[in-house]
Amino acid sequence: MSLPLNPRGIALRFYLLAVFEAQCRLDPDAEWSSTRPLDGSMGWRDFIAIDAAYDSTTERYMRKTKQGRKLDSSRLRQVQGALRTFEEMDGQALVEVPRKENGQHRDYGAFVLMRETGRGVLPTANRYRVPTLSEFTVDIPRDFFLHGWVSVLCPTEIATWLTLRFLATRFPGVHNESGVYLYGEYREQWFGLRRDAYEDSCAMLLDIGLIRPAQRRTPPSEAAPAATDFNTLLASIDFSQPSQPNRYEAHRYQLTDEGLREDALEVCLREVVHRRNESN
After folding, report:
1. Is 34 a residue whose pLDDT tops 70?
2. N or C, which end of the chain is more exposed by having fewer CB within 10 Å?
3. pLDDT confidence of residue 222
4. Is the pLDDT of residue 242 over 70?
5. Strand 253-255 and strand 95-96: pairing?
């Protein structure tokens, strides 16, 4: 599935927050149902942090607009935009948004969350269901949400981190011994990450302490399959492309979940200031 990676949108962030909310509220194997309004106190709107440019004239973080837009109304519009993005993903739609009685307008507050693989093409939609312990899942530590990382990282950084996390979950031995990695053919076709976005995201994740360069515990020949063997393993997860000889050694990474315990905003602001000072 192609992830919604619009750099100015909140779609990926909102879906992760909705899944996190469901898993905090519902029992394993329970089907998703909404008990939260879109707007108002503790509504979905309040779960979202959005960018707001600073206006030195008014000394506020929200410039005046002809529409008189405020932070709350801007967050609501962002949530509605994310729901439209999810709905327009055809057979892979991540939500269903019913129409109001007049049939002309969406009833955003009544949206229904779909499974990670999308609603499917059958009339009966695949609603999101909280996974059980026996199912294969990619574990996301709660600190990713509670310390603000979901709100601070940009979409490509989140997607890159989730991709590395998927590989670490699927191949824990390789991750622990010699690190996980991706070559271009798999990165772009199966994870939708272009080279520049992936490399820039890895550089940022390294600098803010969410991943590290792989630290080999034993010689590569003893620790993990060779690069071509690892590509064969990737192909076993419905990656139907045959393995090809690799022309270079990819960068290998290991996750450092200790970094998630830090306050995301403080860490990222510190890194932005550091990068700005280095460029001057």
Report:
1. yes
2. C
3. 38
4. no
5. unpaired
Q: Quickly count: other Cβ atoms within 10 Å of residue 176's Cβ.
A: 17
For 260, list phi and psi in degrees, rounded to 5.
-70, -15
- Cα–Cα distance list, 169 to 17, 133, 214 (Å): 21, 14, 16
pLDDT > 90 in the chain, percent? 45
Q: What is the pTM (predicted TM-score) of this model?
A: 0.81
Beta carbons of 198 and 183 less than 8 angstroms apart: no
Interatomic CA distance for residues 168 and 158, integer angstroms: 15
Determine contact, residues 182/250, Cβ cutoff 8 Å. yes
- Give the residue, 232 or 133, on which the prediction is more confident: 133
* Cα Rg of the chain (Å, integer): 21
Judged against a pLDDT cut of 90, whether residue 18 lies above it is answered with: yes
Tokens 């630290």 map to which residue?
215
For 153-163, what is each residue's pLDDT tens digit? 999 999 999 99
Rounded to whole angstroms, the Cα distance separating 220 from 32 reads 44
Distance CA 71, CA 15 (A): 20
Cα separation, 25 vs 227, in Å, equals 42
Containing 96, the helix (H) or strand (E) segment is strand 95-96
